[in-house]
Specification:
Number of helices: 17
Shape: rod-shaped
CATH class of the largest domain: Alpha Beta
CATH topology of the largest domain: Heat Shock Protein 90
CATH superfamily of the largest domain: Histidine kinase-like ATPase, C-terminal domain
Structural class: alpha+beta
Strand order of the largest sheet: 12-14-15-17-16
CATH architecture of the largest domain: 2-Layer Sandwich
Distance between the termini: 66 Å
Radius of gyration: 56 Å
Helix content: 40-55%
Largest sheet: 5 strands, mixed
Length: 615
């Protein structure tokens, strides 16, 4: 017991079953509580954000991105990729539809209903989401440049002019950078508060702000689109309408004389002129932008939310988590103790010396209880086998000692000259040597059977011939004992068996029957076909076997009457050899007996077709 306890103490703490169960349970409890709290807070916070409009910045960024797409594409054909990327980065559900709610693109699975109201209208010709970040201004989105986009050659020329203008500014001590407008035209930008009037006056050469051929064609087109509106407003301008590019880059076009004068005067005519230009620009850009679309926003699958909880709510979550953790640990500790106690008892019992044959109590009917029962059964079998081993060693020693003692004794008296080695003495010594040889041969057969090396050489064998041979071999012994020996077999019964081994098996049964049958008794050998088997029986009219002894007749060195000598009771190896020989042929051996009536040994072996029959 002390050795088992010491072994348990040597087990590292982290590997003990109790510690592992507690650790796993605690981890599961913590994860469960954390996941539940995260899910509840995330869902609630997301719903509140959507209800109260707290994700306005993200919504504006989505609108600005989609408005930019509409300003630079003539349709929504490839917008699905943009919608999917925006939904993944913001965690929102994004859907675009036409005015009649026909879905253009949706990040949610097909069939998901739309939110009740659109969040915004995507129309780059009436909403400017680019000039000021996060704001929605009335006007045309500057990214909708359409026919005003300069060509590559024009951009190269304008870049050269902008670089020269920048160097000129530097000569007057003005730092500036070159920025590019959506149309591709470069403009100079200086830090806020820098006075650039003098440098601009000295460096102005009229080339950088002069419209390129592409811009001039677009301005001419705009002039023609503007003229009908100007006439309607009472501004019947004779000659061309002079429009030019705004050098500040805030609008693709600005006013010149006479339109510039009216636009800056703040008069009714100036306001009308501005309205005409804006209307004409929308008409001009309409073919270059995507159609108007409705934007729907909702809660997505990956909505990034924060734990926006008050201290009181945090205390509640922590308290609930602590309570769940405590209950989980307590329950797990009880279960672990209940599980580890019988396992510890099994371990300590298994570590005891084998000769003690320690058993463990079976307290439950679960898997551990079944394991304890199996352990006790194994211990019982080991104890029984150990007892059988000791008994077998003792019996073998006894069986070998008797003939060896006789042979040694007679040889010693012959050597000392006490008796003469006459033929009768030599015959007795020869008989003792045969008994010794028979015991050794039986032990060798049993050892071969145990090792699985007992070989049989099968051949077609007629059952009637087998019984006649066995009966002939024991006829003299039967006559000497005054016992009638009979053999009766069906002529159609054939075996696929080893003739030598089957004669040995039946011979052992007949010898055993002759020893236990009194004078004037009968020993009968019978063979018959029973379906796919041949049944061989050896019946005697002896005293029979007691019911409590019948299960042990095939045990080694077992004799019903312990007082019998080796010569009258046999060595106790014949019947075990019979069982192994029959099993090697794929058959079975059984014994039936009634005290005072006799005993019947029945062998069942696979039948075989007679030689010459078709397979």
């Amino acid at each position: 017991m002390r050795r088992g306890t010491a072994a348990a103490r040597r087990t590292p703490l982290r590997k003990r079953l109790l510690v592992r169960l507690l650790s796993v349970s605690a981890l599961i409890a913590v994860c469960s509580v954390a996941a539940t709290a995260w899910l509840a807070v995330t869902t609630t916070t997301s719903a509140l954000k959507e209800e109260q409009g707290q994700d306005l910045a993200a919504d504006n960024s989505i609108l600005a991105r989609l408005s930019g797409y509409a300003a630079t594409h003539t349709d929504w054909t490839d917008v699905r990729h943009t919608v999917r990327d925006l939904a993944a980065s913001t965690g929102r559900r994004i859907a675009l539809t036409t005015a009649d709610r026909t879905v253009v693109a949706d990040s949610a699975p097909r069939g998901t209903p739309l939110p009740p109201r659109p969040a915004a209208t995507v129309d780059p010709l009436r909403t400017d989401t680019w000039t000021e970040t996060g704001a929605q201004l009335s006007g045309i989105d500057p990214r909708a440049v359409g026919p005003y986009r300069v060509t590559a050659a024009e951009r190269t020329r304008l870049d050269t002019l902008a670089a020269e203008r920048r160097r000129c500014y530097e000569r007057f001590g003005v730092e500036s950078t070159v920025e590019r407008t959506p149309s591709g035209r470069p403009v100079l930008s200086s830090p806020e508060g820098t006075d650039t009037s003098y440098a601009a006056e000295q460096c102005a050469d009229g080339r950088l702000n002069t419209p390129t051929p592409t811009e001039r064609r677009a301005l001419d087109e705009l002039s023609e689109l503007t003229r009908p509106c100007l006439r309607h407003a009472g501004l019947d301008i004779e000659g061309p309408v002079f429009l030019t590019v705004d050098p500040g880059g805030r609008d693709p076009v600005g006013g010149g004389y006479p339109l510039y004068k009216y636009a800056r005067a703040g008069t009714r005519l100036g306001q009308a002129a501005q309205g005409c230009v804006q209307s004409a620009r929308r008409t001009q850009l309409e073919p270059y932008v995507a159609p108007v679309a409705e934007l729907f926003l909702g809660i997505g699958d990956q909505n990034p939310s924060r734990f926006d909880m008050s201290p009181a709510n945090k205390a509640k979550v922590v308290g609930a988590a602590g309570l769940v953790l405590a209950v989980t640990v307590a329950v797990t500790a009880l279960v672990a103790l209940r599980l580890s106690r019988p396992l510890r008892a099994l371990t300590e019992a298994a570590q005891q010396p084998p000769e003690l044959h320690v058993r463990v109590p079976v307290a439950t009917r679960d898997e551990i209880g079944i394991l304890a029962e199996a352990f006790n059964d194994l211990t019982e079998r080991r104890e029984r086998l150990e007892a059988q081993r000791k008994a077998m060693v003792s019996d073998i020693a006894h069986e070998l000692r008797s003939p060896l003692t006789n042979i040694r004794g007679w040889l010693e008296v012959v050597r000392d000259g006490v008796v003469d080695p006459d033929p009768e003495l030599l015959a007795s010594l020869h008989e003792e040597a045969l008994v010794l040889q028979r015991i050794i041969d039986d032990l060798q057969d049993l050892a071969a059977a145990d090792a699985g090396t007992l070989r049989v050489h099968r051949e077609p064998l007629r059952a009637a011939d087998l019984l006649d041979q066995v009966a002939a071999a024991h006829r003299v012994a039967a006559r000497t004992a005054g016992v009638a020996l009979r053999a009766d077999a069906e002529g159609t019964a054939w075996l696929d068996a080893d003739p030598v081994r089957m004669r040995q098996a039946l011979g052992n049964l007949v010898s055993n029957a002759l020893r236990h049958t009194p004078a004037d008794g009968t020993v009968t050998l019978d063979a018959r076909r029973d379906g796919e088997e041949v049944v061989l029986t050896v019946a005697d009219t002896g005293g029979g076997i007691a019911p409590e002894d019948l299960p042990h007749v095939f045990d080694r060195f077992w004799r019903a009457e312990k007082s019998r000598s080796r010569r009258t009771g046999g060595s106790g190896l014949g019947l075990p050899i019979v069982r192994h020989l029959v099993a090697a042929h794929g058959g079975t051996a059984r014994a039936a007996s009634e005290p005072g009536t006799g005993t019947v040994f029945t062998l069942r072996l696979p039948a075989a077709a007679p030689p010459g029959d078709a397979p």
